[in-house]
Amino acid sequence: MIDTHCHLDAARFEPDRDEVLARAWAAGLHGILIPGVGPDNWEPLLAMSRAEPRLQVGLGIHPQLLPDLPPEQDEAHLERLDALLGQGGAIAVGECGLDGPSAAGAPLERQVAVLRRHLALARKHGLPVLMHCFRAHPALIELFKQEPLPEAGVLMHSYGGGVDLARFYIQKGCHFSFAGPVTWAEARKPLDALRVIPPDRLMVETDAPDQAPTPHRGQRSEPGYLPRIIEGMARVLGEPVEVLAQRTTENARRLFREAFPLPSR
Predict the structure, then answer these.
(1) Secondary structure, 3-state, the chain
(2) Which are the contacts of 196, defined by CB distance < 8 A and separation ≥ 6?
(3) b/e per residue, 164-183, with b = 16+ CB within 10 A?
(4) Which residues contact 118 (CB under 8 A, 6 or more apart)?
(5) N or C: which end of the chain has fewer CB within 10 A?
(6) Do 39 and 92 touch, CB atoms closer than 8 A?
(7) Mean pLDDT by 10 residues, the chain (265 residues)
């Protein structure tokens, strides 16, 4: 199993990160993708990945971080991102995207401009994109209609939109990853969307430390909870857990170009 989105570098893991990883490997995971969210954590993430091949990283600027970054520094940050991607070590661009609630501190026009550059970098370096979109789908759809998407792919992280949105992103060639909310009792839209995702475009994530699945909801999430999410997805799809676990693993390895090592026998 591969957790395609886990913020393992978050401060909430500082006290027991080694134990969290030990539980993840014991739960059957053999890969975790850690998305970079801003310039300060790019080099530390690359160092973490060099030390443990089962940990792979993406590099990007999260839209929720933009209000804390001076707009006049956007170009310098993006140039540095370009240079780091060119050096290798990252298997994806992102986390990047659009965030409606952040528009008060970072107008959508700025968010779109920064995201447009991320897409260009993904095309340049032949890497897939880890896409965040929260309460900003109209703006993202408009951008996707204008901008050529990277041939390496776009992964819609923690997808929570409905079926109609999913059909648009499917038509654009996007992949989809689902997190803890698919196990929540009130979940409706993501479950309906899950049923229409092409099987070869489906992946799974924890988004830890956030969005813990049932029965851990409200607590800190961690990558070892990934089997719970797969179980929830398998119930919705009406297929065996083992089959879905294998398929989502194969899909992730294919999207990220075999970056994750095969599990030892």
Answers:
(1) CEECCCCCCCHHHHHHHHHHHHHHHHCCCCEEEEECCCHHHHHHHHHHHHHCCCEEEEECCCHHHHHHCCHHHHHHHHHHHHHHHHHCCEEEEEEEEEEHHHHHCCCHHHHHHHHHHHHHHHHHHCCCEEEEEECCHHHHHHHHHHCCCCCCCEEECCCCCCHHHHHHHHHCCCEEEECHHHHCCCCCHHHHHHCCCCHHHEEECCCCCCCCCCCCCCCCCCHHHHHHHHHHHHHHHCCCHHHHHHHHHHHHHHHCCCCCCCCCC
(2) 163, 166, 167, 170
(3) ebbeebbeeebbbbbbbbbb
(4) 60, 61, 78, 93, 94, 96, 129
(5) C
(6) no
(7) 98 98 97 98 97 97 98 98 97 98 98 98 98 97 97 97 96 98 91 96 98 96 98 96 98 95 72
> Would you mind telling me the total number of residues written for the chain in this entry?
265
**Hey, what amino acid is at 82?**
D
Place of tokens 């999207």: 255
Q: Which residue type, as a one-letter code, is found at position 69?
A: L
